[in-house]
Amino acid sequence: MADRYLHLTGTAPGRFLTRRLGLPQPAPLRRWTLETPRLEGPLLHLTAGASAVTGVAEVLSRSGLPVVGDTDRPAAIVLDATGVAKAAGLGDVHAALHPVVRSLAPGGRIVVLGTVPSPEDHHQAAAQQALEGFVRSLGKETGRGSTVQLVRIPVGGAAQAAESTLRFLLSPRSAYVSGQVIELTTATATPGPAADPAAPLTGRTALVTGAARGIGAAVASVLARDGARVIVLDVPGAREELERTADRLGATALPLDITAPDAADRIAAAVPDGLGVLVHNAGITRDRRLANMPADRWASVIEVNLDSVLRTTDELLKAGVIARGGRIVATASIAGIAGNTGQTNYAASKAGIIGLVRSLGPRAAADHGVTVNAVAPGFIETKMTAAVPLFIREAGRRMNSLSQGGLPVDVAEAVAWFAQPDSTAVNGQVLRVCGQSLLGA
Ligand code: NAD
Questions:
Q1: What average pLDDT score do residues 397-410 get?
Q2: What is the mean pLDDT of the segment spanning 32-36?
Q3: Distance from the alpha carbon of residue 225 to the mean position of ligand 1, in angstroms
Q4: Are residues 282 and 407 in the same domain?
Q5: 37 and 88 housed in the same domain
Q6: Any idea what DSSP says for residue 60?
Q7: Is 309 exposed, middle or buried (0-12, 13-18, 19+ CB in 10 A)?
Q8: Whether residue 282 has its Cβ less than 6 Å from ligand 1
Q9: Do 171 and 210 fall within a single domain?
Q10: Of the residues 132, 148, 183, the one at which a domain ends
């Protein structure tokens, strides 16, 4: 559904009026297109104290942006604060960013590099945790469609682990992601044949559940753009829409209810050469306050959103259908983080996904060479949110740092980042794609 307010504030009289009334000023976000694949302008590389990781400059040099140490109008700023190990070192963070933050171009990016807070050194832990509060606050201040994130690289590790993450965060693909903390593991991608940067998923098969429409169809489309052979799965009742989506993307349609007892076997049969990327996107809502919620509404949401995800994941991993180097991406929601009235069942199912990802990620990597991550969308413009009553819908759209709803493609780009062959160090993470929603922040 069109965001008329965003259009209104895009006109001179609309901007004048809404400014006078003190209303939100959403900036139109610049998303990835073939013609605009990169941010426009230089990347300013700053350091707070000495770096505690190796190879940052080298990784930034491959970001596709000209890296500079000084500029009037950076499109992106990367502050290496990995060496900040004491509260006093936070002064270096202020000293580095204070003079330049105002010059960031509209739609710009700030990425702070930190390290994991230490369980042994409470001074280091305090200083590094301080960066989280700093980043989340700066995300609320920058405005004009700019975003701010914190990427934690293990102490003494190599910045190479952050390469795919920086490529994503420093590009138009992450337009609706802000105020996020991403904690990387030490793993780096096993060097294989260099992936085609325009089609990094070439040779991989990706299966997306709930892909007839909405976010799932966008995920399928972005994975196909990145070179994957795509299978789109949806309930048999959505067969026509599913086949239209498959035709449009050059994908294969698999009409199947993901809750069917033999769903994993049917998926395995559809991918005789194994699966490189499995995206659990299918989801339903059956909202009622708990006091009014019958058992069947409760059970169906837990079954589709959580139980079937657990079951098919377990069975496909056990059967070796998901190849080494494979990627599993599940779909949570900010409702699973913040909670929501009338959504005890939905929020429980989505919080369950977060539990699944955090627990299984490290073991799946050790036992199968597979990463497990989740996206947690905020307010995304789909049929699901078009059905929300007007006032709640408007609140959902505006209550975030970017003052607008996201698009299905924003979630899809995050899934594609998890799916990258060199995203090996990204594991057990839950990325909110919510424009830094105030809910659960
Ligand atoms: P949607 O309703 O437009 O699409 C969901 C798809 O899943 C539908 O095509 C549906 O047929 C399919 N599906 C449902 N049950 C299924 C089953 N048993 N087997 C196979 N397919 C099934 O929803 P959407 O807005 O595109 O949401 C996609 C995912 O994102 C869901 O998991 C949802 O909970 C999550 N999410 C959405 C938002 C949002 O703002 N739209 C926010 C947070 C999370």
A1: 95
A2: 95
A3: 21
A4: yes
A5: yes
A6: H
A7: buried
A8: yes
A9: no
A10: 183
